[in-house]
Amino acid sequence: MTTPRLRNFIDGDYVEATGESTFDLIDPATEEVYGTSPISSAADVDSAYRAASAAFAEWGDTTPSERQLALFRIADAMEANAEKFADLESKDTGKPRATLVTDEIMLSVDQIRFFAGEARHLSGMASGEYLKDHTSQIRREPIGVIGQVTPWNYPLNMAVWKIAPALAAGNTTVLKPSDTTPSATLFLAEIAAEFLPRGVLNVITGDRTTGGAMIDHKTPQMVSITGSVRAGMEVARAAALDLKRVHLELGGKAPVIVFDDADIESAVEGIVGAGYFNAGQDCTAATRVLVQAGIHDEFVAALASYACQNAKTGLPGDPGSFFGPVNNANQLAQVEGFIDRLPDNATIELGGRRQGATGYFHEATIVSGLNQTDEVVQNEIFGPVITVQKFTDEAQALEWANGVQYGLASSVWTQNHGRAMRCAKRLDFGCVWINTHIPIVAEMPHGGFKHSGYGKDLSSYGFEDYTRIKHVMSYIGR
Fold it and tell me: CA-CA distance, 157 to 43, in Å (whole number)?
């Protein structure tokens, strides 16, 4: 049977890649090949950047209201095609189909509409005479052409996080989705082309060599990547050679601190939901739980019981599936490797194995008895594995929470307001949730510290990252 072959989307239309190299698109739920996608060459990258550069001359001169209208129309078209987006996303990722429209597609639509509003909300100091006989004003301008790379855990949503603020600010873009999940992003470029000038939004597929060519190219004035710490460091090094702006959203190892006065039932429900959603393939996932000694045993038992009943993995079409497979064979091997290397002090409270012989499914897993220096505590697993540590007091909880290389997200579960506020201040993470974990809204920034990268997605702060600031001063004396 002939499998569909995807094409790049450059200068407002689908085009064939110049080379013959392709990679298979594999359904993570069945391991069946359902399509092929080109490995774009340096020539393809150059073609996409030339289109984006030519388009910037027009798009960069549009008014905020014109950009807002285009984004609103793109959002409306996405909403009208929500079911198709969900089908594409489920096929590429293996995610449960039943909840994709509400959990991700409409969330992406809302985020585009938010940035449509931001296009007309440029900020800056008031014009005035800060020096006698001189009037100063601030111009907030688009940066130019942006190179962007997105991951496979939330293909469409991560594309929106990058494309929407960039276009709202007047930039043009070349975006490379992950090699395993390109379909929904290409479809987004297709429907957006009806409302954008040719070349404003370009999507090319490929592997690490394609991504490297995008970063090394002389055209982009800024590069933005969501991915691993390793990939972020490589991008930062390469971009430094040409002094490109860099926007990095990298890994995470979110601490979840549960004090002995927490509502156990609420905490268990919230942690299971935020730990196993998307098979734990989320940089903010609630997968590193620290529980105070007084409730530790009771909490672990409740966590395992609730997860056993409510965190089922299965096929995308199974209504009982809370999460699907991990995305690819390499990722499954990574998750299994962490379990295989568990230290002698570790206890597997739930799961611990691959599920079935077909598909990249792994059971919801809970591991307790861990020490702060253990590999599964220190490194990002990116799978359906929750670790549990027992702490004694607030000082130890904060020491262990901050004692990793990451700094993206965290949460605190307690009924003590003062304690919650102290922890919010001292936790070295870009987001602190209190008595909840993982809700994200377009109005609030998302981004981390330390090895989790720098720059913000979402919010007005994320919009500002895609602009440059110019000071204009006029002499008004006689």
Answer: 28
